[in-house]
From TrEMBL:
Protein name from the UniProt record: Scavenger receptor class B member 1
Superkingdom of the organism of origin: Eukaryota
GO molecular function: scavenger receptor activity
InterPro entries associated with the record: CD36_fam
Protein family (similarity comment): Belongs to the CD36 family.
Subcellular locations according to the entry: Cell membrane
Keywords, ordered alphabetically: Cell membrane, Glycoprotein, Membrane, Transmembrane, Transmembrane helix
Chief location of this protein within or outside the cell: membrane
Transmembrane segments: 32-51
Pfam family, one: CD36
Gene Ontology cellular component list: cytoplasm; plasma membrane
Signal peptide: none
Amino acid sequence: MVVGPKKVIQQVPSRISLMKIQNFTAHKRQSFVTVVYGTLFIIAGIISFAINPAEIYTNWFVDIKEGKFVYKMWKEPTYEIFSDIYIFNYTNVPEFLSGKDKQLRVDEIGPYKFQEIRTNENISIDKDRGVMTMNPVIKLKFLPDKSVGQYSDPIIAPNIALVAISTLLADQMGYFANAAAYYSITALGSKLFLNMNAGEFFWGYNDPLVKVASTLLPGWIDFGKVGILDRFYAQRRDKVEVELGNRNKRYSINTWNDSPGLPEQGYTTLNESILCNRLKGTYEGLMITPRYNVSNPLPIFRKQACRVYPFRFLEERMSDMGFPISRFKMDESAFNKSSPFACTCTKNCLPDGFVDIGSCYYGFPIALSKPHFLDADPEQQKMFVGMHPDPEAHASHVDIETSIGVPLSLRTNMQVNIAVRASGGNPSIRPVKDKVLPLMWLSLKK
Ligand SMILES: *[C@@H]1O[C@H](CO)[C@@H](O)[C@H](O)[C@H]1NC(C)=O
Ligand SMILES: *[C@@H]1O[C@H](CO)[C@@H](O)[C@H](O)[C@H]1NC(C)=O
Ligand SMILES: *[C@@H]1O[C@H](CO)[C@@H](O)[C@H](O)[C@H]1NC(C)=O
Ligand SMILES: *[C@@H]1O[C@H](CO)[C@@H](O)[C@H](O)[C@H]1NC(C)=O
Ligand SMILES: *[C@@H]1O[C@H](CO)[C@@H](O)[C@H](O)[C@H]1NC(C)=O
């Protein structure tokens, strides 16, 4: 029979390693320029008065100190995450459209460095059910002084509004509706490629087509301009429930917006769910179950990426502070159709190496891949000059201190693309028909 103190040791790590981790995250923090969080801190400060973290955790954590640490990790994680973003600049558009060049030439520019500020608001604990619920908030803050690229940089990029709306109509409507759309597009003067600056590309450029679409289809497009980051970081009211009571599943997701799965990827019931859309038991990566059994894959859900992505234990390493950490690497096949985590596709399926996340983005044909089409269908790569996939630099991993379940560093890389499908009735996107056009790639780092 195990008595009190012994149980504590079993359940939570020793004080020393916890201190080390706190120092480690503090140390990491200081090695970057201090960034002012602004009002977020004030808001978080007010919330912290409403709940007493010590009281919350006494059910599961006998030691109050550990409870406070865990609470802080969720409310405002002590580490800082940065996002390096690279834009693909299309540099031979006139030559390509005139037929002189057979391939599109893209030139990676950047990085544009952002800080990703992730907090959780309205944290509340249901002691009886042993769960914690919260509203995640995620914000991006541009760091111009740390960036190579600036918002004023002139770029040439595909007209996302035109490509998305044309592809959607091609998918959903017949020839005549597409022909009618073509007349509107021509009348409005929308062009396939646009000159804009990096800031407009991220946060929105005005295209008459979006205004028309948002007026005609108010339930579908509720924004007046299209910007790729603006869409990815649009504030939705999300609610997450995380498991606390069950030690073997602690910190894993129970539900997201009250659902154990992702309806956007076809989730209906747990029984019928597949790894792609089952959120119950996955992790967002803020913390994972202490003493995680590393023989099992680590499924990570990220709302923006609209699917669960598998990571697997690679090796044990030593951290700078002298304690062991476990490296989990994203499955090489994560973006392939052969991956057990791939979503089922019956129509308009993308080539290998692309994950369709259109259902999370108003049906816009947004596709994720690894940067520079790494491990993607070679046919897609051949359509472009300027793709330089690098298995080392473009892979994704996360390093975790598994006894407590704290991620200490990570690098996850993803590219955002737009898939083009054209209808005979609407020739406006014909030059790029059946291509997956790269837009930008992000490297999330801690
Ligand atoms: C993007 O490409 C265009 C066309 O080649 C060029 O004029 C522009 O300077 C490029 N932008 C950047 C930031 O390099
Ligand atoms: C937190 O709760 C308040 C009150 O219900 C709500 O107004 C606010 O939007 C919530 N925060 C988030 C991020 O959803
Ligand atoms: C799910 O499966 C379990 C056991 O296989 C069964 O008892 C349960 O009724 C099923 N639930 C639904 C909603 O089909
Ligand atoms: C860890 O998981 C593997 C595979 O699922 C299993 O075979 C093994 O028994 C587990 N180890 C422990 C200690 O639970
Ligand atoms: C993923 O698909 C690509 C393209 O078909 C292929 O080259 C690669 O070997 C696949 N990778 C894995 C791990 O299955």
